[in-house]
């Protein structure tokens, strides 16, 4: 059994769901996962604490520093890796600037697992280079479609294909809002309901204005083509009046991404509802491949993060 020490950065909806799944499945595929530290904005707990007790304290008191009987450290994010030296850094925070922390981790040979999109969307080439230099890995399944495995599908498979186009509904919050508006709810009523599901970003304008879907489309472009897009367009859902069969659709093709509301045909695989995402991948040999699955929610996202932790522990290669 190979024990891996993980440092969890961020302890919100996804981070707390992750410690639940780790407690349910501590040993998988010859890997034993040990939570070495957990960080939120109030500090870092490190050592022989019970992650489920930390989850209770976070949920009841709101900050992990209230976990009594354990030392609480106030590491800067970069210090965290240098002091704790985990095997794997798991970022489940909403810190857009987390790239600087990943850079330190990868240079130290610490693999990075993340569900946080901006660092991957804005710095994929540099992160890949750092990972290759230090024989660490960068894994980000849950940045796109949460635990639904579109990233693994593209990074580890389809290597004989030209990816001609990807059309996808990648944001669960706007799908939820649009489907509630279809059934007669106002935008504001639907927005409030989405908030209660725990799928909205810490800054919900990222969902509404298409920024979250745009980050995800950019990540798909990086993985499919190994470069950033030159041509981009982004329109959110604030101006949608008739929501019937409308979804926020991302289109990715070589050199170009756009995100905008589109009215879909009744039989379109993209006409998803609730927290479901869907993607149509068009290729030269395989033709059309459709992937549909949940794209939001704490455990849905933590599931993809968990798989990436095991892949990182096994030093799973990612050709793309
Ligand atoms: N919830 C989902 O369905 C889902 C799905 C896919 C990806 N994600 C992504 O996963 C990440 C976590 O999502 P969530 O739903 O748990 O969000 P959340 O808002 O519930 O939790 C984010 C946590 O990060 C913490 N944080 C932010 N900046 C920090 C910093 N500088 N230092 C320490 N802690 C910091 C916040 O305090 C918060 O506790 C986000 O990047 C989100 O975009 C979420
Ligand atoms: N806010 C995001 C969470 C999943 O990335 C969404 O609604 O899809
Ligand atoms: Na995914």
Question: Which characteristics define this entry?
Answer:
single chain, 320 residues, alpha/beta, Dihydrodipicolinate Reductase, domain 2, 2 domains, six-stranded mixed sheet, 11 helices, binds L-homoserine, binds sodium ion, HDH_short, threonine biosynthesis
How does this model look, in words?
- The chain has 320 residues and is an alpha/beta fold.
- It has two domains: 2-147 and 299-313, 3-Layer(aba) Sandwich (Rossmann fold), CATH 3.40.50; 155-294, Dihydrodipicolinate Reductase, domain 2.
- Helices cover 38% and strands 25% of the residues.
- The protein is built from eleven helices and 14 strands.
- The chain has helices at residues 13-24, 51-61, 77-84, 99-107, 117-134, 150-156, 172-182, 187-196, 205-208, 211-225, 298-313, and strands at 2-9, 27-28, 31-40, 43-46, 72-73, 88-91, 111-114, 138-139, 163-169, 231-234, 246-253, 256-263, 276-283, 287-294.
- The strands form two sheets. Strands 1, 2, 3, 4, 5, 6, 7 and 8 form an eight-stranded mixed sheet that branches.
- A hairpin with a 3-residue loop joins strand 13 and strand 14 (287-294).
- The longest helix is centred in the middle third of the chain and has 18 residues, at 117-134.
- The model has no long low-confidence stretch (mean pLDDT 96).
- The structure holds nicotinamide-adenine-dinucleotide, L-homoserine and sodium ion (NA).
- L-homoserine binds at residues 146, 171-173, 199-201, 207, 212, 295-296.
- L-homoserine is lined by residues 146, 171-173, 199-201, 207, 212, 295-296.
């Amino acid at each position: 059994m190979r024990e891996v020490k993980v440092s969890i950065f961020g302890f919100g909806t996804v981070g707390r769901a992750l410690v639940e799944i780790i407690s349910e499945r501590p040993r998988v595929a010859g890997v034993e996962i040990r939570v070495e530290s957990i960080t939120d904005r109030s500090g870092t707990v490190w050592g022989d604490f019970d992650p489920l007790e930390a989850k209770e304290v976070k949920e009841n008191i709101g900050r992990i520093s209230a976990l009594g009987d354990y030392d609480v450290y106030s590491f800067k994010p970069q210090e965290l890796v240098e002091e704790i030296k985990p095997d794997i850094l798991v970022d489940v925070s909403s810190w857009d600037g987390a790239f600087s922390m990943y850079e330190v981790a990868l240079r130290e040979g610490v693999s990075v697992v993340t569900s946080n999109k901006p660092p991957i969307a804005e710095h994929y080439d540099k992160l890949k280079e750092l990972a290759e230099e230090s024989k660490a890995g960068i894994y980000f399944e849950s940045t796109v479609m949460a635990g639904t495995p579109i990233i693994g599908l593209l990074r580890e498979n389809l290597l004989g294909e030209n990816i001609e186009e990807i059309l996808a509904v990648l944001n669960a919050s706007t799908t939820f809002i649009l489907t509630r508006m279809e059934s007669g709810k106002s935008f504001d009523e639907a927005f409030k309901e989405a908030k209660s599901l725990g799928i909205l970003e810490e800054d919900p304008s990222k969902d509404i204005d298409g920024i979250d879907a745009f980050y995800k489309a950019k990540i798909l472009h990086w993985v499919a083509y190994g470069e950033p897009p030159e041509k981009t367009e982004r329109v959110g859902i604030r101006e949608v009046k008739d929501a019937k069969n409308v979804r926020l659709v991302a289109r990715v093709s070589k050199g170009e991404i756009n995100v905008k509301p589109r009215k879909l045909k009744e039989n379109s695989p993209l006409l998803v509802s609730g927290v479901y995402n869907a993607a149509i991948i068009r290729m030269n040999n395989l033709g059309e491949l459709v992937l549909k699955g949940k794209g939001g929610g704490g455990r849905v996202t933590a599931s993809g993060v968990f798989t990436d932790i095991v892949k990182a522990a096994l030093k799973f290669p990612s050709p793309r």
